[in-house]
Amino acid sequence: MTIQSTIHPCAAVPDCGDLEQLVGFFDASRVARTVRSYGACAYALPEAWRRGDPRQVQLVPVADLLGWVAPACVDTLVFVGGGRASTSSAGGELAGGGTDPADACRRLPAVDVVVAVDRSGALAGRVRTGARYENRVPAGGRLFDALHRCLDLATPPPSESTARLLAILWLGAAASSGSRARPLRWPAVLRCHPIAAALIEEDPRIGEAALEEAVAALPAIWTWESLREATALHGTLDALCPSGLAHWMDEGMFSRWATGSAVGLDRALADLGGVLTPSAAARVGLLLARSGLKVPSGLEVPSGLEVPSGLEVPSGLEVPSGLPAAGAPG
User: Fold this and answer.
1) Range of the structural domain that residue 60 is part of
2) What pTM, to 2 d.p., does this model score?
3) Domains identified in the chain, total number
4) Closest of 139, 141, 146 to residue 123, by C-alpha
5) Are the beta carbons of 127 and 133 closer than 8 angstroms?
6) Which terminus of the chain is more exposed, N or C, with fewer CB under 10 A?
């Protein structure tokens, strides 16, 4: 959905090719009025701007940016919004001088933000606090990713493999299946892994050793891109990212979105407390280490067991073409 732009038809049109000048134009008078009227939003600037026709501008509320694709005529997006200054903008110190982070966050100054990105991927930004401003390009985040995808631009690649997310899904499923009264033993824990159901369905006689090899190799097979495609087509991780958004995202944005939507690994471990037998917990830690994930505290590898330094995908191991639907972490 788009709404009528607040830019006056007679407003002087800045040079779209100079993004810093463009950001300054919107910062001068547009941010406060736009935020007051509509909340955070993005201006979609078509090529008509270069011909001096500001009436062609579309204004997209921030809630509608997810999944939105800018028309081909749009060559620049300018986000305007407000919020609270980060600690980094205050020189790395908590504003307010207090010692309570929550109290300090409440005292952080209100800021106006303008971010511009064009189809070449060029960026410019400005953060204003009252009469003072700082030209600063955003380092990342969901808004950063969304603006790029609206223009069909690639976002930064994933910063880690899928090992952590798969571990969270596995531990969540185990926590939901066991209890402190009846802790799960290793065979039951292993069957809670997202890959186990698919492999057992294909071969009910599959043994523990083969399942363990599949779990260890899975992050190299279920890459972020394969999980994104499976979610877009089959809703595999629909609990973490709707299929329609997964189709619109690229691998990098999907990885950050899914990871940010899942519970943290520390929380997953806390939910797991007392639900596994000690030996099962140790074997979980060993298998996570084999999959490339640092062994979390509480799942220490027993002394005398060696963790392989490298992992090769077993020859002949095939993952079913239809990935199993993964539920939300418990």
Assistant:
1) 3-150
2) 0.78
3) 2
4) 139
5) yes
6) N
Q: What whole-number distance in Å separates Cα of residue 198 and Cα of residue 103?
A: 48
Mean pLDDT, the chain, integer: 78
One domain, residues 121 and 247? no
Q: Cα separation of 217 and 13, whole Å?
A: 55
Is there a single domain that holds both residue 140 and residue 168?
no
Q: Which residues, at least 6 apart from 119, have a Cβ–Cβ distance to it below 8 Å? A: 75, 76, 151, 153
Which residue bears the tokens 């204004």?
A: 59
Of 142, 83, 130, 80, nearest to 108 by C-alpha is 83
140 and 43 both lie in a single domain: yes
Residue 282 scores a pLDDT above 70: yes
Q: What is the pLDDT of residue 131?
A: 84
Looking at the fold, whether 12 and 95 belong to one and the same domain comes out as: yes
Least confident of 32-36, 110-114, 156-160, 314-318: 314-318
The answer to the question of residue 234 being in a domain is yes
Q: Are residues 181 and 146 in the same domain?
A: no
